[in-house]
Amino acid sequence: MNSEKPSSKPDLYVIARIIKVLKEKRRLNRTALATSTGLAYDKLVNYLNWMSERKFVEIDDDGNVKLTKAGTDAYNELVQWIMKYVGQLRFPRLRPRT
Amino acid sequence: MTEMITEEGVVSKVQELMETLDSIKKYNAFATSLKKFAIIIVASMTVFTIIMGIAEFYDLRNSLDNPLFFSVSFFALLIPIIGIVTGVLFMKRKVNSVKTGEWKEELSHGFPSALKMLVELDWEATFNEISMGKISYVLYGLMKTAAYWVVTFFALRLLGIAVFLSIFQRVEVFGGFFWGALALLIVLFALGNDLLRRYKEILSLDLLLMELRWFSFEFRKAEF
To answer: Which of B48, B93, B145, B155 has the lowest CB atom count within 10 Å?
Structure first.
């Protein structure tokens, strides 16, 4: 997961963070989004370009970012996929004894 | 709403995973401290054996009216007992000093953080930790049982000699095999439940290892 080059292989965690903030706030300008996600502005712009290419977000002329249905669906799919597998894990109650 | 429940479900499952991995860290503490535990036990047993060897050398046991043999044996027997107690306390301290829950703050940020933990988890290192922890836990249990057996064996033998000396005025009635077998029965009776619980824990660790291997395989091969 190389976060420096999102166009080749994005950091899933960063994308999930961006989408989560956009889901909560609906529409945000890039500076506010960078603050909310805790990302450096340049890094955020790289990620937004990558997400915009895949139609996950829309950026208007004023620089406001909005999550698209495709973005919401991708996020939900990811959550569902993780839950499908992680949900099957059964963890034993372990208490190492001395 | 369903999405939120699913997100919370993922976070909750990752929390369970991290709690389990915290327990694995504790098992792994057995691996890192087992050598020192073994040194403590073996050293105390060695000192005990040397003292008893000296007692045998000076033929103290056959001096029937010699209370020195019993005094020496009794105090010598305290050495491995102190060794076991020290070893177990040392291990307890090491296991309790394992830091846990360091991930809690991060996980409080919700699904993205849970995802980050899954992505950044070093699965191979985790599998090694489980395997090493499991083996060390077994070795520790066996070593502790063996140490209990040695102490019980010598204590019984000493008691046997004292009883037979006072009743029959003879030193040896039963051989070492008898006392060894009796000591084993007593130790197995006393530690039976503990050994059974350890066995079940080992089985649980095996199952956990299989489940995590499956999950990591699915997770790593996924194309997001």
So the answer is: B93
